[in-house]
Design goal:
Shape: globular
Structural class: mainly alpha
Mean pLDDT: 90
Order of helices and strands: HHHHHHHHHEE
CATH superfamily of one domain: nmb1532 protein domain like
Helix content: over 70%
Number of strands: 2
Radius of gyration: 18 Å
Largest sheet: 2 strands, antiparallel
CATH topology of one domain: Four Helix Bundle (Hemerythrin (Met), subunit A)
Number of helices: 9
Strand order of the largest sheet: 1-2
Distance between the termini: 37 Å
Amino acid sequence: MTDSENPYADTRHMHTVHATFRREFALLPGLVRAVTPGDHERAHVIAEHVRLLSLSLHEHHSGEDAVLYPKLAMRAPKESDPVIQFVDSQHANINALITDIETRLSTWESSAGADDRDPLAVAFESFVPFLYEHLDLEEKLILPLVERYVFASEYRKMVEDGAATIPREVGPVLAGMIMYEGGTEALPAEMRTVLAEIAPRAYAAYAEKLHGTPTPPRSSDVVLGIPAISFRAA
């Protein structure tokens, strides 16, 4: 459907991005716990992946804070204000949790020791359910409002501006990470021609190095458990 047919935002892209965050963050506890004590090279690989996810999540939330929530507050205050206040508090809590994780991550990256590895894995096991809850809330209460009150052009510019802040060297990996969950349609139309072929290859190579396979579990194959995150049995 074009903007002329429906002038308001199509949030399917957001659902795919959320699914990507669910998958990648849910796999982190297992990735961390699998690192052999003393394996500094592997610890560095995992640490760089966590930093990439943290950057992507931060930019994702920055776009919401700068564009979506102000427009909803202006155009539909009675419907959106209570939800936005709660989601804003969740963003603040997520930032605090990520800051704690990044501190633990740096310590473990330096030591590659089990004494630092295991508390980091526990921190991820605590963080992931909170992230799932936050994403679920946005999808149920925020995105339906976005589809009614935020114009497609405004939403598209938010996505474009967020993509522009991502370092060019990791752009294809992040695009492929999202496409792995939602295909070419998960990318903004103007990015598809450039990234449709290179992004899946970039993520496949990245996943092979990170997960040991170019086809790690998708979000539908990852089970959220408290306190453990695991895969569904085939």
